[in-house]
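re: ur question from the group chat, yeah i did fold both. here u go
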Amino acid sequence: MKRIFIVLFFISITIIVFANDLMKPALTARYMEYTNNLLRGKRSTTSREQDPPPEYSFILNGNGEPTTFLIYSYYDYMPYSCNGHNVRIQPEISMPYGYPAGGIFITYMCSESYVTTTDRRAFYSYINPDGTLCYSGVCNAYTIEREGYTSCAVDPVTGDPFVVWHSTVEPDNSYDCTITYELYHASGSCSNWIEPFILFDNPEMSQPYTGHSDDEFIWPQVWVGASPLVGHRRVHAYGNNFTSNSAGNANYNSLYMYADFNADSLLYLSHLDWTVQSFPYFDDMHYNNIARVNKDMIVSETDGKVVFFGSVADSLFALYSNDYGETFTKYTRQIKQPMDNPTNLYTGAPLWENDDGSPAEMFIIPSYGLTHYNGVFTGENDSKVQWMSGVNYNSQENIDQGVYWVEYIYPKIFTFDTVTGEFSFYDLDVQDSDPGDDHLAVAFDLDDDGIVDEYNDEGWPIVVMSYPVWYFNGMYHYNDESNCKMTSNGNWVVCAWHDCAKLYHAYYEVPGYEGWVEQPEICIIISDDNGETWSDIRYINANPNDAIIDTTYHYEGNYAPEFEGMLPINITLGDKLEIISNTPGNYHAKLHFAFFDDDEYGYGSMWPPYLGGNLRYAAIDLEFQEEWVTPVSINENTVPPFAVQLFNYPNPFNPETTIRFSLTQTSLFVTLEVYNIKGQKVKTLVNEILPDGEHSVVWYGRDSNDKRVGSGIYFYKLNTGEYQKVRKMILLK
């Protein structure tokens, strides 16, 4: 048996037909020969009782289907882009005119023909509140360009979406970044896109900000947040530099832009007044060829927080603004952790060797895989930013040579505290004795006693592996193309990614993994305490063999029949969790997501016959263990302790909805009434003394004369004498 340090080859993926706008790897991936001292599935017993994998169920759309078809695309490489969000949820009402909203905008790149090298467009789909498809089409109906890598943001007031992408729009064939927005608030419909205009004009605009005249800032991301101007919001965007520096590396410095707007400025089809800035920290990393910058941005809807977060070389970083993106403060933390290099139990040879055969000096450092992520705000007043990425086990020799071992990538949750400026991390897979401590897990010493946990028959230390990618075929791993996406609402947080560890073993014909050929899994974890601790992993797959539990063949019953006949990859999450229920023992949230149902395992659009697949939307009901705490009520002291929670589900609804509320004070005289948008009372649902406890009542969409009411916005008001609360609901027919 050959030792694990034997190198089969170096490889760099170059695919001509995809042109040259793929995200370039900063380091060369070095692949290891498969050995039986790489094992999957051994997990530690943590220092706390870890919550079990979350229970879930698919939520059927209005047509009774578990998934919603969006469009067929021949282009199957990263349709949902790299960072940021592609699935954005509207507010329930579009203001200022009060149109019903509550739908979902999904953006992606799509090719409707075999000519994927040129026929690649920026598309969107609008999903109705009941999960059915309203419309799929191009964001740009004015010109045909090579468009790609979309990102989407939705104004929380008007419900209008902003979409950005990069494309070749000028004679020099350089990539420019384009933006458009849709005037949903003007008509209550989803197809009023304005003519796109250039946001990042490459390479002309870079000179004043970076001092370089050949930069191309592409792969744009967009957010909408609060504005310092009364009655306005601020739209933010950034792009990463595609151009290589003098050393031949693309290290991704950025240009950043923002502009203020309101509903009227959008109605006037304004191109907005943009402020542009660069970041010396990023510029230094790129032009001086120090290290690649892996990052994303997040913007608060409620205050002036704007944060760039990620990793550079051996450190985490955050650029933090509390003044709406006008100024930033830099925070960094080195997390290069030394790691023992254990030896063979019989021969004393080191597990990892340098090229000359000497023992390797080993470290855990931030990974150059798992870099396509987004972030979420958690904690009181959005005080923390969290994102999922990875760490890599690597030798100092490899680090110096610019190569890394793909097999040794482990997913983590990273946290930046905006109040203290401190960073922390949480082990996801694989975990040591305390996944939330200040020590990164070592995969051959999970009990943290400084001794190798287990050896194989030949005396080599067993290294427990994670494989957080969706593709492996012995040569390509696509670790750069795997998404790690998060979403949240209050103290409830969700994280999702892909894993192909079982597939990896099946490829190498390891006994017991025969049924896992070309079968990646979706991984979902949840937190109900603002990301302080996390549940165990819920694996979801399309492998019909996994419908039963058989530990010999590594079947754990995680087959989702809703994925029957599919190959679900490239999962991306909605930007917000929707609260379904929040009563004791009944904590549920709706997770929106989109995915690509591939026709063929791999990237079929790279070579004939250019197979693509279906883009789809779905939603699942996730069960949480602890109460949801609304972010709004964290600092509200006006809510009496005896009246808690008032909500209805479904919302929007047709033909009926259930209104739920709870009381902790006995013998209260309670009224629950329904009003129309004109303030006229439609029906009294409750008018009596009620005991403490949970209560629910169904409104069947009828007035006090038992006549059906029309579609529209309605309000329901709970009144206990000392406490009253009003909420909105929408009846759609």
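okk and heres the other one u asked abt
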Amino acid sequence: MKVNYDKLRGGYYTPELVSQFLSKWVLEVSNDVLEPSAGDGSFVKSIVELGKNVNVTSIELDPKEGNKIKKIYKQNNFTGTHIDGDFFTQAKKFIENGIMFDGVLGNPPFIRYQNFVEEYRETAFKLMNSFGLYPNRLTNIWVPFLVICSKLLKKDGRLGMVIPAELFQVNYAADTRKFLSDEFCEITIITFQKLLFSKVQQEVVLILAEKDGKKTSQIRTLELTDETELESVTSKKLANLEAKDLLHSKDKWTYYFLEKNEINFLHGIREKTKCDLASKYIDVDVGVVTGRNNFFILKPNEIFDRKLSKSTLNIVTRSNHLKGILFSKNDWEININDNLPSYMFYPEDKEYEKLNVNERSYIDYGEKNLAHKGYKCRIRKKWFIVPSVHVPDAFMLRQVHEYPKLIQNLNGATSTDTIHRVKILHPNKDKVIAAFLNSLTLVYAELMGRSYGGGVLTFEPSECEMLPLPTKGMDLLDPKRIDKHIRSKEIEMVLDINDKILLEDNLELSNKEVKEIRKIWNKLKNRRINRRK
């Protein structure tokens, strides 16, 4: 299918207004331009239409698309050099021969490591290694494209690219963020409220990067509704945007959506409070990976019908099963009465022949429906025994809409991998859970989590543990009262209560400072959520 082919090669083409905008910006100072992943020739067309007398070198892996580009050159009597083949192989030749460019334009493919052709991947990664960067199995192909293209620029060159918003926030791009801050003196990031590529639900940004030999680096950000607003964006408008110092670090760039004074304010608050990290109080682990949820996860009526009540473990499978911050017996009974999937098939770790007749019957049913053929199942010694199962003290949602929270587990349940399992490293478990809901922790959740095109905030366990968590004074919190407010969707009331006790009375922040923290949290949260709309 064409869609699958496009996905495999990362071939989602650039909207015309975007290629026109980036081409115009790069060509303001460039006479010798590289297009490393030319695709259907969108950037080449834009350059031709601008009518500038420039040398263009285009590279495209797909020979059919390459023929289209050659046709564009020929029909317009345009001096362009097109190369059919892999960019990384060609880039290696450029570097070996000292060939560099005034400008680079492109929309690199978005291809995961496992779909990245090994021959090309090896060349790309070796080039990155030569620049002091060490990609891993999480690295998407756009990363080496961006890095290597940056190295092919002359000392005063410009780069204009369409890049996933992952650049701001994923851990595998941490070295890339540091690299960009060292490589460029001026970076402008343009974001869009509406997705440019609706078919892939991938939020992308435009990165405009300039070199001129300066030691200090600055970053500017501009948010537009959609690509139509690019028509009114000029170089003068970009230059007038507030410039923020680009830190030479691997930190996430979500900070830069804030104004300079807001960034400095938050840095000052962290320095002033020296607040403990959450890792002192919580140990976060992923949920259970069954390998085949449609076999292992059962509803109450299925337990009854198959006589498996003694062969299961209580489990939470979805975030909407956890309404407050205390997962009570009443909550569990409501889920059961609603016939929600609340049990995991979990027989004793015995050989098949030693299990009871009902367990064997259900395993036979699973094999008849090929449940044992799933990758996670077939690599187990006994495919029907789920490993790494434990009952946590609390849960934390891996993906959240409005804000993250901890939920105390009062029902001996575990959770699937849609929900993180949490061990509380403090005797007052409910107090730690209640203290998590404060404006300081929530604002850093926005800065340290990851948000994609749908507006959902996602956390890895390590990101949860790195959040600041003020706990001094938490003994004064009332978890049951907070639970009631959360169930009534009264997060602002909870923050009023907790901020007063934790931030003002015990961290000695002023009411004005706390209000500013809350304002910044709402700004970041609303920006993220509104992108979904």
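fwiw on the second one: The first strand starts at residue 32 and ends at 35. The chain is about 40% helix and 20% strand. idk if thats what u expected
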